[in-house]
Structures are given as structure tokens and as C-alpha cells.
Amino acid sequence: MIRMAATGDVHFDRKSKDRLSQHFEGLEGKADFFLIAGDLTKSGHPEEMKVLAEDLKKCPIPTIVVFGNHDYHIDQVDILTQILREEKVIVLEESSVILEINNQKVGIAGTKGFGGGFVGACGSDFGEHEMKSFIRHSKNNAKNLERVIKEIEADFKIALLHYSPTSQTLAGEKKEIYPFLGNYFLAEAIDYGGVDICFHGHAHSGVEKGETPGGCPVRNVAQPVIRHAFNIYSLDQTQKRIFDPS
Ligand SMILES: [Fe+2]
Ligand SMILES: [Fe+2]
User: What CATH number has the domain bearing residue 177?
Assistant: First the structure.
């Protein structure tokens, strides 16, 4: 059994000191690692990320994050990455990490992802240069994610995203903005790559539970959705069954 704490869209600003760490007491007895599904900051400012890094320094278990669109807002991603890595936070972008948990290997593949839409209501790489580059960016990103997932050799494979791979977890959001909340290329990457569970954020007004067309459980862990600092999920070793927080 592996146990993971997961959250997203924590949107730290300069005044967010201890907002996560106040919940860390005893966490090492409840979860093996901590996942944050992007939108770590309000506007991507290094000062905001420093507050989060100070908080995550107190986390008793390995912390793995991807960035969200908010973290890209002022183009400081390299500096933000450095701030987190200085505090031993694992930052993924079209990359993976393998953790060793109770003699089992857990591979986590992460990327921010991007928009594009879902089957029957998606953009296509046709027409104007801007439209083609939008959709090609999403497709290439998903292809890279699939490659990263396939390269993982582990007992469990987890995908950590910011954008959603399915419209199921977007229920509650305005349908008009679905193409800006995720894309189905990410679900194809997850299904072809063979993932046991996928976490994402970004859809603050969505719902927690969904799945890909291939049956991979998807959990939208955006804080406004889970209404907790984080949720704890478990995966059973033999059945690869997901246990949601009760
Ligand atoms: Fe967000
Ligand atoms: Fe977002």
C-alpha cells in the first residue's frame, strides 16, 4: 500500500506563511509523499514562492510539485524552480522521479499540461499560426508526458498535472472555458503510458472524481474542490485499487 497526500492551487502569496505547514504534524505517519498539482503561487513572484518553500521545508515527507499557469505569469519559472529545489522540493516538468516506499518503487511523472479541449469540442492544429501553435504545444506536451511515463520502471505509476486530462472533473465549470482547463491528449498519454492514478488541479469549480477513457482514476485536488489543506489517498499494491479519503 502506498499513501499520498495531494493538493493543488494553494496560490501562496506573501502573507501565506504556515498555511500548509500548520497541517504537517504527524503527516509522516499518514502519507509517504506529498503532491502539489500546480498554481503554487498567486502570480508567480519569487517572493511568493519563498514563502511556500519555507513552509515546505517543514514537510516531513518528500514533496513533489508541478507548476500551474499562475506560476508562469511573470516568466520567472527558472528562479521559482531554484527556490524550491534549494529546499529539496522535487519539481517536475515533462520529467519523472522514482521514490522507494517500503521496498516498492513509485514513479511519478509530472507536467503542467495545457488547454485544447476534449473530444467533440476541441481545438485543432489548422488555420492560423497562433491556433496551430496552441494545439501543437498541447499535443507535443502530451506526447512527451507519454514518453516519460513509458520510461518509468516502477511498481506504481502516478501522473501529476495542473490541467485536467478529462472533462469529468470539470463539472461545475462553465462549458465555454473547458478548452482552457485541459485536453484529452493528456488522457491518451496516461492511458497509453499505463498510469495507476492521476492528480490535477486548475479547475477550482470542478469536482474531485473522474477517470480517463481507459479507466485511470483522476482526482481534481484543487484546494477549493477538496476543501482541505490536502487529501490523503492510498493505492493498494495487488489490486491497484484507489482508496479515497473517508
Ligand atoms: Fe488555480
Ligand atoms: Fe490554474
Answer: 3.60.21.10
